[in-house]
Amino acid sequence: QVQLVESGGGLVQPGGSLRLSCAASGFNFSHYSMHWYRQIPGKERELVAAVSRMGGTTDYKNSVKGRFTISRDNFKNTVYLQMNSLKPEDTAVYYCSAAQIYRAAGDYWGQGTQVTVSS
User: Fold this and answer.
1) CA–CA separation, 77 and 67 (whole Å)
2) Which of 1, 56, 49 has the alpha carbon at shortest distance from 24?
3) Residue 15 to residue 28: CA distance in whole angstroms
4) What's the Cα-to-Cα distance from 88 to each of 17, 59, 65, 70, 92, rounded to whole Å?
5) Most buried residue, 5, 61, 64, 112, by most Cβ within 10 Å?
6) CA 2 to CA 83: how far, in whole Å?
7) Residue 38: Cβ within 10 Å count
8) CB 87, CB 117: distance < 8 Å
9) pLDDT tens digits for the chain (119 residues)?
């Protein structure tokens, strides 16, 4: 049974930091590129960050470059998103996804974790 379980979301003040985690099980984690998406109600889900299977390549949405860092641990079957200097416009539900093709639509999705940036 494939599972992607996100954690680490919450309420943070502008300028603060959060670290999201996504624990994977039920598939060969190291064979999949991993991605973080986010979605605001009423808007399309957007790709925030991507990391290749071995972690050697990463990509970011322009608005989060220099503030967010995606990483993965293939021994722990976990992908992370370190979010620094958070802004109110980062408020969204964040989803992790696994895809066999880098930056492609996910084959597997997590249930999402809410991130709210507000004073």
Assistant:
1) 24
2) 1
3) 36
4) 12, 22, 16, 20, 9
5) 64
6) 26
7) 22
8) yes
9) 999 999 999 999 999 999 999 999 999 999 999 999 999 989 999 999 999 999 999 999 999 999 999 999 999 999 999 999 999 999 999 999 999 988 887 899 999 999 999 99
